[in-house]
Write a structure and sequence with these properties.
Blueprint lengths: L1 E8 L6 H9 L18 E6 L2 E7 L10 H15 L2 E7 L6 H13 L3 E6 L4 H4 L14 E2 L8 H11 L12 E6 L6 H9 L4 E3 L11 E6 L2 E7 L8 H4 L2 H13 L3 E7 L6 H12 L3 E7 L10 H12 L8 E3 L11 H13 L6
Parallel strand pairs: 1-3, 1-4, 4-5, 5-6, 7-10, 7-11, 11-12, 12-13
Antiparallel strand pairs: 2-3, 8-9, 9-10
Helix pairs in contact: 8-9
Length: 356
């Protein structure tokens, strides 16, 4: 299981993406040929000494219509919010810049553990430049070369020392499920619709909620945990509209879930980003239920449902095993079908087939 999340931050052209690719190594070169699975270069998993963590390359988060400084600030904000440890990359060739100082001050205020890496130290003279970076007051600078693979063993050792001791584990003994999908497909509305169903008791016992968006409840005397990925704490529109940011939010929820409810917006139909999000649950090996939401807003006749089902199967070939349910979170139409379906999918995922 994953020990946590590490985010790479730094100003442009210091070699963040080179380091990202170096740390991920061969794991990223394993290509899934399944049609329709869209790959994203912003995140990956790093394995070191039998343990692993998720790595985020914030340089891949492009924020349109923003000034250069604002974009860097937002990327740092995202890293601070999402990461357990921050890998701050600087460049020995350019030395300490005013941007480096500004980023360092922002990171210090976050109180998150920071590993300071001085990149592009390809010779002895450049390696001596590391001492200039003590002025950032972020501890001992570590010399690395993304291009030549120098110094990463020490960096990984330090990251592992700073990550949370306990790996991210799914909830034990209860069925946990998450709602995933692009922004504004109705994830929070569906969560509320499920929790307001008759026979559902929401628990408010202290210590049972791992995050503000994890809600334990009981349905027909069985315990469940619902994880709502819609809980983006940065409320500005700019954050909610960043496609890759919403994907990061979905990743941690999928890790803790047994089953993922993948929502499609019935009003707007299937979009490219849907393939990104659905691919996350598929690749994680979780049970998936395709939830076509806002069914009450769709103009339909007796053939509409069949046509939409066929379109979903064509667009999401890799989810051929996933059941499809048409619901309206707003009117609660068919929402009561979800919990029994979650149980069914969870049982199928946990089924062990004997060798004989």
């Amino acid at each position: 299981m994953l020990r946590g999340t590490v985010a790479i931050v730094g100003r442009p052209n210091v070699g963040k993406s080179t380091i990202f690719n170096r740390l991920i190594g061969q794991r990223k070169s394993i290509v899934d040929d399944t049609p329709g699975v869209t790959r994203d270069r912003i995140y990956g998993e790093v394995e070191w000494l039998t343990q692993s963590f998720r790595l985020i390359d914030t340089g891949g988060i492009q924020i349109e219509n923003q000034d250069f400084g604002d974009e860097i600030n937002m990327q740092v904000d995202i890293a601070i919010e999402e990461a357990d440890v921050i890998l701050f990359v600087t460049s020995a060739i350019e030395g300490v810049t005013s941007d480096d100082v500004a980023i360092a001050r922002k990171l210090q205020k976050s109180k998150k553990p920071i590993v300071l890496a001085v990149n592009k130290t390809d010779n002895e003279a450049l390696q001596m430049m590391q001492y200039d970076f003590y002025q950032l007051a972020l501890g001992d600078p570590m010399v690395v070369s993304g291009a030549h693979g120098i110094g990463f063993g020490d960096v990984l050792d330090k990251i592992m020392d700073l990550l949370p001791e306990k790996a991210i584990e799914p909830y034990e003994g209860i069925t946990s499920f998450c709602c995933i999908g692009r922004p504004n497909v109705g994830k929070s509305s569906l969560v509320n619709a499920i929790l307001k169903e008759d026979r559902v008791i929401v628990s408010d016992v202290e210590g049972t909620t791992r995050d503000a968006i994890d809600t334990p409840f009981t349905y027909n005397d069985q315990e469940y945990m619902i994880i709502d990925t819609a809980g983006i704490r940065k409320r500005g529109k700019i954050y909610e509209n960043i496609e890759k940011y919403s994907i990061l939010r979905a990743l941690s929820a999928i890790d803790r879930s047994n089953v993922a409810l993948f929502l499609i917006d019935g009003e707007k139909g299937i979009r490219d980003q849907d393939k990104h999000v659905a691919g996350l649950a598929h690749e994680a090996g979780k049970g998936v239920i395709i939830v076509y939401n806002k069914w009450d807003t769709v103009e339909k006749d007796e053939k509409t449902m069949h046509k939409i089902e066929q379109k979903i199967r064509n667009e999401f070939v890799y989810l051929s095993y996933a059941p499809i349910v048409f619901v309206s979170a707003k009117t609660h139409q068919k929402v009561n079908q979800l919990i029994p379906l979650i149980d069914e999918v969870h049982d199928a995922c946990c089924l062990r087939v004997p060798t004989n």
